[in-house]
Each structure stands twice: as C-alpha cells, then as structure tokens.
Specification:
The chain has 146 residues and is of the alpha+beta class. The chain has a 5-stranded antiparallel beta sheet with strand order 1-2-3-4-5, covered by helices on one side.
C-alpha cells in the first residue's frame, strides 16, 4: 500500500566521486596544456621583434640611400632605443655598431617576454645577417626561422 501512494523517486545527478574524477582529469589536462600554451605565446610574440627590426632596417637603408652613410643623421632616423609595435621588444642600435658603412640592430625582450630564454636577443646587420642568441649567449636558428 505504501508503494502505491508514495512511489519511489529516482534521483538523477552525479555523485561526489564522479565530480571529483572530472575535476582531477581537468586538472591533469590543464597541467599538461598550460606550459605548451605559454611557450606558444612567447614564440608568437617573436614576430613583434621581427617586425620592429625590419621597420628600422628599412629606415636605415633609406637614410643610406640618401647620404651613402648609416651614421649621418637623416630626418627618418629614429632615436634608439625604439619599442616594437606591440611593446614586447626594445630595438637598440649601440653607438659603436653604427658606422658609415655598417650597423647592427638588436631586439631585446621586455616585460613578460623576458621569459623567452630561447631567443633572449635577436639581431640583424647591414648585410641582413640574422642572429638570435639564447639567455646563455648560444646561437639559436629558431629565432628567425621558427
């Protein structure tokens, strides 16, 4: 008689164990994915350095075409150091590297991009020699050709 008037209700939902398993799996996936994501973001920001170096290289070449010297000031010559378009790098031209026939532009990371130890500096000179150095000073080809 009880079962007729009070039908047994079926509870639908998840148990605490099932929820904890889902949380654990999500945590493991996040622990694996986040470092890869961080590396990918740092690598993608290197394009900002390439853009800044190319822009300043073009300006220096334009100045050279006007005066046949990299060291002669022209109207378009920027005042170094110059921030990259997105602000992840600072481009500098050390005064000792700027002569009448040579220059060497160097991009160094700033802000959060400092964590990119694979490409601590990226440089280009008047002959378009592209170099990248890690934080230990070892050459890295991955900086210019990912």
């Amino acid at each position: 008689m009880c079962s007729i008037f009070f039908p047994r209700q079926r509870h639908r939902g998840f148990t605490l164990i099932e929820l904890m398993i889902v949380v654990a799996i999500t945590g493991i996936l996040a622990a694996v994915a986040y470092p890869s994501y961080s590396i990918y973001v740092l690598k993608s920001h290197r394009a900002d350095a390439l853009t800044a170096l190319a822009q300043n290289q073009i300006i220096l070449e334009r100045c050279y075409a006007q005066s046949f010297s990299y060291s002669v000031a022209c109207a378009a010559l920027p005042i170094f150091p110059v921030a990259s378009p997105q602000g992840y790098y600072s481009v500098s031209e050390p005064p000792a590297n700027l002569t009448a026939t040579t220059y060497k532009l160097t991009a160094t990371p700033v802000g959060t991009q400092i964590k990119d130890t694979t490409c601590a500096t990226m440089s280009v000179d008047q002959a378009n020699n592209q170099t990248g150095l890690d934080s230990s000073g070892n050459p890295q080809s991955a900086c210019w050709h990912p």
